[in-house]
Each structure stands twice: as C-alpha cells, then as structure tokens.
Design brief:
Layout: H1 7-27, H2 33-50, E1 65-68, H3 74-83, H4 123-137, E2 143-148, H5 155-166, E3 172-178, E4 181-182, E5 185-186, H6 187-191, H7 196-202, E6 206-211, H8 215-222, E7 232-237, H9 260-277
Parallel strand pairs: 1-2, 2-3, 3-7, 6-7
Antiparallel strand pairs: 4-5
Helix pairs in contact: 1-2, 1-3, 1-9, 2-3, 2-8, 4-5
C-alpha cells in the first residue's frame, strides 16, 4: 500500500466509474455491465493509490503495467482512465461509434491501455512475458493482470500460471475477479473452479483471498511490498452487478443493457450511496 492511499477517495472513484459504465451501457445499448461493476473497486484501488502511473505520460518507461484481460468489461477500464485523467470524460461519448478508438472490447489505441483484449486467455501470458523482461532488466516497475473467473476455463492461463513461479516473477500480481457468474451460468455449474486458492497454491503462487469490494484489504493485497520470490494472485471475491440492488448476482446482467427505467433506478441507487457515505 502506498503512503498516499485513501480509501474514501478510491471509494468515490469506484462510484464514479460505475456511474460512467451505467451511462455508456445505457446510451449505447452495450453489454457486460454486471462484470464492469464487479471489477470497479479493484480498478479504483489500483489507479487511486497502488499503481505507479502518470496520466500525462501514459507510456513512461517507469510506469507500472496493467494487462486487463476482461476485455468484454471494457467500460470499467475506459471509465477508470477517464476519471483518473488519461483523457477527457467527453471522449467516452464516442464509445462504440464508427471509427472510435473506444471499441466494445478493450483497444490498445486508447491512452493508458497496454493491450487490446477480448479473446479470453491471452493477457496473463503477455503480462508474464513483460514481467520476465522487467525482472531481467532489474526494472523497478511492476506488472499487474486482471482476469475474469470464467476466463480461467481457458487452458492458456494455466500455462502462464505454471510459467510465472518457475521464473520467480515476484514483480507480477494477478487479480481474479471472482464474481462466480460467467456467460451462461454460474462458474460452479459451467466448469467448477473451486477450490481455486488451493489450485494456485499448488502451482506455487503466493495466494491471497480478499473481499473484492473492501478497498483497504485490496490495497494491502495489491501492494508491491513484502515480495518473497513468488508471483502473487489476489482472488477478489466480488459481486456481479455490485452497487445496484436489482443487478447484484443476476446472470441477466452479464449481457443485458439497462432501459430508461432501469437506468434511472440504478443511477438513483448509486447517487444515494454517495450521499449515505458523505
């Protein structure tokens, strides 16, 4: 955790991220709002106090790298970058428009994005390779990767999960957004991942399980301090659709976009939460 970490600030950032995601998904009839809401707190903590990153210099050689494998939940990353100064919020108005860089899956042409993603199972392997390069250069920067839980059905991830501890990549942190709902059902029904922590431990990862909506716990788990020669995985137990009561833990919100009434109700809940925490 950095000395500048402020849980109140990152909580407010996460709420703004969710409001931006809600607006984009409603106005452009886009999908994956539930998964964007589940990962919003992780992104807020990373960009709000943990990662070394300068929006004015998105390609700085000293920056920490984030490889966001949940490319389908692009609105969360786009909103995070807008809210932390990588570009003006008005840029998000072009989301999914013809010729816009803000495509419906994450696009590396957007400032602050390291890798285009959407085909699941790729980004962790890239992150491991980048971490290895950093390790060999004795670079100070850190590599992060975020994967969805359903994405762990892809075998390519497990190749990278074998590779990272073999090369002692303690400059790599993986976050699993474990909301336990994937495209067509629960992860338990589609392809059971449990016991997930035991799997990572068996692969020789430092393994931490946290409430993925507890900002102080996330900041501690994501810290670059206290490394022991192993890559670290943070299994973030999250809620699909977090922050809006009628979306939480509902499979429909993997793909569904909110109509006018649902948009108004969801926005009211998020704004009320802001008032309650003020």
């Amino acid at each position: 955790m950095t000395d500048t970490f402020d849980a109140a600030s990152t909580t407010a950032l996460a709420r703004r991220i969710r409001l931006q995601c809600l607006h984009m998904c409603h106005t452009k009839r886009a999908s994956h709002l539930g998964g964007a809401f589940s990962v919003a707190d992780v992104l807020a903590v990373l960009y709000g106090g943990v990662m070394t990153a300068d929006p004015a210099q998105p390609k700085s050689p000293q920056r920490d790298r984030l490889f966001y494998s949940k490319g389908h939940a692009c609105t969360a990353l786009y909103a995070t970058l807008a809210e932390t100064g990588y570009y003006d919020r008005s840029a998000l108005d072009t989301f999914t428009d013809n010729d816009s860089d803000f495509t419906s899956h994450v696009n590396h042409k957007v400032p602050g994005v390291e890798l285009s993603t959407g085909s699941l199972g790729h980004a962790l392997s890239v992150a491991a390779g980048v971490a290895l390069a950093g390790k060999r250069r004795q670079a100070a920067w850190h590599t992060y990767a975020i994967v969805s839980d359903g994405e762990l059905d892809e075998g390519s991830n497990w190749e990278a999960i074998l590779f990272a501890p073999h090369h002692r990549l303690d400059n790599l942190t993986l976050v699993v957004d474990y909301n336990k709902i994937q495209s067509f059902g629960s992860t338990a029904e589609v392809l059971n991942l449990d016991p997930l922590a035991d799997k990572f431990k068996a692969f020789n990862w430092e393994t931490i399980e946290v409430d993925g909506h507890d900002h102080a716990a996330l900041a501690a788990a994501l810290s670059k301090q206290g490394r022991n020669g192993k890559p670290r995985v943070v299994i973030a137990h999250t809620v699909k659709g977090k922050g809006v009561s009628f979306m939480e833990n509902q499979l429909a919100w993997h793909y569904k976009s909110p109509d006018a009434a649902q948009f108004a109700a969801a926005r009211a809940e998020l704004l009320q939460e802001s008032k309650d925490q003020a």
